[in-house]
């Protein structure tokens, strides 16, 4: 009887083992070392397949090793921007085949390699993070000032101002569909400022250095000349008009400004006209000037302040009233340098800077760049009777 019971127990054990084996491999004929077999099968079932090899960007293979960077290039099949568009304030050059507009995504595994790509100019690393410092009021030291889409609804009722607006061809201030990359914009301004500071000799400042036509951003030269800016504003076939010397005469000779600014007077004689030390307040200006002030402070000489005119902005606003010829690409290029030279004001023109960098094929770093869409608008006609 004992051997028979032993055989029954053995048969039951084999049956249990064979059932367990069938859960992992129904065709298995092993009858020994069942625990080892079960352990091996479990290990194999959770074995991960190796990831596919990364797609590499040809331009970057010469700079970085394949084990340091993993590149992923995004191609939509068509250019993202196909020439001047009514939905964008910056018209791309159509005939520039050497500068295709595309976005290259770069995913850096090694932070040291990524930082080496970004911080190629001495001092740029310090300047970049210094702009992100918080003030005593917990505000970012150097915020980004977005261009605001101009609302011209109702301008047709004011023929005088409307004719000037269309005569200056300012339609690019009214078009939407914009976006910008904050980190890329800060990279651009930090590199511009670092380049100017490295040019300084003993006793010189960044403001004393000449205007730059190109800025190195993440190892790529970005063209920011006035000619290129005008092409982005108006298109490749646009021929800008030269700014009349009167504009710069008034900027350089402060003693002659008061008489010329007389055109800003509304109905009474403000204090700033009598005393050159007085500030120019928006409330003392006529309605047409307030309209041009909205254009100037949002697109040409950006500022958050709305009620007080600075000298340069007052001269530019008066130039609109006097219908002087103005080269906006030249004005914007100089304004970019003016903001670079000061360390206490916001970074302007983020949409324009982003588009210029994209056209130059500046790499977009994945995980670092957050694209923000334009949402802000400004209506200089609201509550005004021009």
Automatic annotation (TrEMBL):
InterPro entries reported in the protein's UniProt record: Transposase_32_dom
Pfam family name, one: Transposase_32
Domain Putative plant transposon protein: 179-362
Superkingdom: Eukaryota
Biased composition (Basic and acidic residues): 56-67, 94-103
Chain spans, region Disordered: 1-103
Composition bias type Basic residues, residue spans: 1-15, 37-46
The protein's name in its UniProt record: Putative plant transposon protein domain-containing protein
Source lineage: Eukaryota, Viridiplantae, Streptophyta, Embryophyta, Tracheophyta
């Amino acid at each position: 009887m004992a051997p028979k019971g032993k055989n029954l127990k053995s048969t039951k054990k084999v049956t249990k083992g064979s059932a367990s084996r069938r859960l992992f491999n129904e065709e298995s004929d092993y009858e020994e070392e069942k625990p080892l077999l079960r352990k091996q099968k479990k290990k194999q079932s959770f074995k991960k397949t190796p990831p596919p090899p990364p797609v590499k960007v040809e331009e970057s293979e010469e700079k970085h090793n394949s084990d340091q960077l993993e590149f992923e290039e995004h191609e939509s099949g068509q250019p993202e921007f196909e020439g001047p568009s009514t939905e964008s304030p910056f018209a791309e050059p159509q005939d520039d085949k050497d500068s295709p507009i595309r976005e290259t995504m770069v995913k850096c595994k090694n932070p040291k390699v990524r930082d080496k790509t970004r911080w190629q100019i001495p001092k740029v690393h310090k300047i970049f993070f210094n702009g992100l410092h918080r003030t005593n009021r917990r505000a970012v030291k150097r915020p980004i000032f977005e261009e605001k889409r101009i609302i011209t609804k109702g301008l047709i009722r004011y023929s005088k101002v409307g004719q000037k607006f269309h005569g200056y061809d300012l339609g690019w201030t009214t078009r939407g569909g914009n976006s910008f990359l904050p980190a890329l914009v800060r990279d651009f301004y930090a590199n511009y400022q670092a380049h100017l500071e490295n040019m300084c000799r003993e006793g010189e400042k960044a403001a004393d250095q000449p205007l730059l036509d190109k800025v190195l951003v993440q190892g790529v030269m970005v063209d920011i000349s006035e000619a290129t800016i005008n092409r982005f504003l108006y298109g490749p076939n646009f021929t800008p008009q030269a700014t009349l010397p009167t504009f710069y005469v008034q900027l350089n000779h402060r003693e002659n400004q008061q008489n010329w600014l007389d055109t800003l007077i509304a109905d009474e004689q403000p204090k700033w006209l009598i005393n050159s030390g007085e500030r120019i307040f928006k409330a003392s200006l006529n309605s047409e000037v307030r309209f041009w002030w909205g254009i100037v402070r949002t697109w040409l000489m950006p500022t958050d302040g709305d009620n007080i005119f600075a000298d340069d902005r007052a001269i530019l606003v008066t130039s609109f009233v006097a219908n002087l010829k103005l080269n906006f690409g030249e004005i914007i290029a100089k304004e970019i340098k003016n903001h670079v030279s000061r360390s206490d004001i916001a970074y302007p023109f983020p949409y324009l800077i982003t588009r210029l960098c994209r056209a130059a094929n500046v790499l977009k770093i994945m995980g670092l760049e957050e694209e923000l869409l334009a949402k802000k608008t400004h209506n200089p006609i609201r509550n005004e009777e021009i």
